[in-house]
Amino acid sequence: MSFLNFLLFSLSSRFSIEFPSIFLCIATVFDKFQTFSTPNHHPRSQPFFDHVFSFSVTPDLKIWFRNFQIVDETLQLQEIGPRFVLETIRIFAGSFDGAVLYDNPDYESPNAKRRAIKLASKGKYIEKELHKKAAIVKAQQIKEVIAEKVEDPVGEIFEVKEKPSTEEAQRIAAIIDKKKKKKKLVKKAKYTGPESV
């Protein structure tokens, strides 16, 4: 196999300076496994370079992959795709196991994110239930207070239980105690006009 028959690779300088472990991983992938290479003597292989794969690192430690094509003799690049974002979780010494070379401390799995959302909604539910229980307890306490027969100290001081002594006071007390009667409204017949004969 010929290594990278029709490709050029563009790696961000941040790889080698800030993230040497990721840089080593990508270099190993390209060097050892020839992931993006064209097999030697492939019928569609070209004797020139016309594609550029760009790998760049964002501040949140995600790797952006972009595929460019060299369009003409002026060596201008045109993005042809695909474009995708990689998030490094762990890099192992072997294919799927072995010593951990790199571990992303900021990575949070989707299950952990969903669990956090559920726990937050569970907290709201528990808070609602506590409010309901507090309202029930408060209503019971109010009923108990109303049901208690407490002596009225105001009545003892002002002697309200005694009937008024004067006739004028009795008349005023009778007016206050008397229930108001609703007046009945009498419906009048509507005028429908002169009767036709």
TrEMBL record:
Function, as annotated: Required for biogenesis of the 60S ribosomal subunit.
Organism field: Ancylostoma ceylanicum
Lineage: Eukaryota, Metazoa, Ecdysozoa, Nematoda, Chromadorea
Principal location listed in the UniProt entry: nucleus
Location of the Brix domain: 1-97
Name assigned to this protein: Ribosome biogenesis protein BRX1 homolog
Record key words, sorted: Nucleus, Ribosome biogenesis, Signal
Signal peptide limits: 1-16
PANTHER family: RIBOSOME BIOGENESIS PROTEIN BRIX, RIBOSOME BIOGENESIS PROTEIN BRX1 HOMOLOG
A GO molecular-function annotation: rRNA binding
Family designation: Belongs to the BRX1 family.
